[in-house]
Amino acid sequence: GRQSAIVLVDDLDQGLAVVDAYAAEHLEVITADARERAARVRNAGAIFVGPYAPVSLGDYAAGSNHVLPTGGCACHSSGLSVQSFLRGIHVVDYTREALAEVAGHVVTLAQAEDLPAHGEAVTARIPDAAGA
Question: In the chain, what are the domains?
Fold first, then answer.
C-alpha cells in the first residue's frame, strides 16, 4: 500500500542505520543472527525477532504493548507502559565540594543563555565561580 516501501542497502550495518533513522512503530528483524541485530536497534516502538515473531503476534497474543509511537516518534518516545502513568521527582543533592567542581561550568552556561540569576545562585554559594 501507500504506507509501504522498500529500501535497498549495501549491508546490514547500513540497514540498521536506516532502521534507526526511520524509527518504525513495528519492526521485524528476520536475518541471520536476528537477536544480535535486534539488540543493536535504538529506535523502534516494538521489535519482533526472527521468522516466528510476526507483528500480528504482538498485536493479539504475545503481550507486547499495542500503543506504540508512530510516524518516526520512536526516536524519542516509547510505547505506552505503566511508566507513562507514574510521576517522577528528580532530587538533586550536592555537597559544597561537588558544587565547587561544576560551578564554573554552570556560571558559563548561565551567562551563555543570558540568565544571570542562574549564575548568581551559584556564585552566592561559591564566590570563586564568578571568574568563569
Answer: 12-85 (3.40.50.1980), 96-131 (no CATH)
